Amino acid sequence: MKPNFEEMSKADLKAYVLSHRDDDEAIRVFFGRRNPPDSEATWYGPMCTPEGVPITENIRIAEEAIKKRAEIDREKQKQREKAHEENLRHKLEQEIEEKLRSQIELEVEQKLREKLEKEIEARLRQKISGENQQSDRPTTATVTAEEIDRFRKQLKHDPEALAALDTIQECEGNLEEAARSIATAAGNTDVESDLLEKLSTRCRTVICQEDMKEKLPVLIAAIAEFLASTSGFSSRLATPIALFAIDQGIEDFCEF
Question: Which of 23, 38, 67, 236 is 20 to 30 A from 3, alpha carbon to alpha carbon?
């Protein structure tokens, strides 16, 4: 038994037609329904009499209604176009904003990277410069006149040590200058600016023997013997080398 199509809702009728495409009656009823329904529709009078005479007033009313409906449709179309245009403009603005934000972020990142690289380069340059200055700085170990007098008493039986002390005194207690002066006087032509520090490093094994640390005369004699047998430098350099190690602190010098 077929359903009553006239009583069915439009949604139910549409679903029925879609599932029964061969039911002509259901299709006729579906397409025969007005939207809006007849109860809400606006009805106009006939355009002419039964004799075929045009009814001017009805024609005018219909024309005005058609014009009004056309204006409403045009206004709706304009609103749709305006909304579409606004959506496109908004989308374009978002794309431009995202591109600008990305570009700004890249520029900021690049500037930060450049700044960081400059800071690192400046620190490295400063560090290298400081290391170079420190490596080029001559040894400034010195002894006072009072210390020289005390050393003379301890070394009174060692003519070579006393001669070295004379040179140290002439150099106003500067052990590095005295060492270079002694080396030059002995015929050493290639005298480095940090001669004393390098020679003391060579003599470390002699200086750091336990029985040498507290005995200056014995220490100087051992260094002199070492220099004469291994380095080619004057044994008289033993005195400024020993005093340099004492000035540095024997324990610290040997630990280093």
Answer: 38
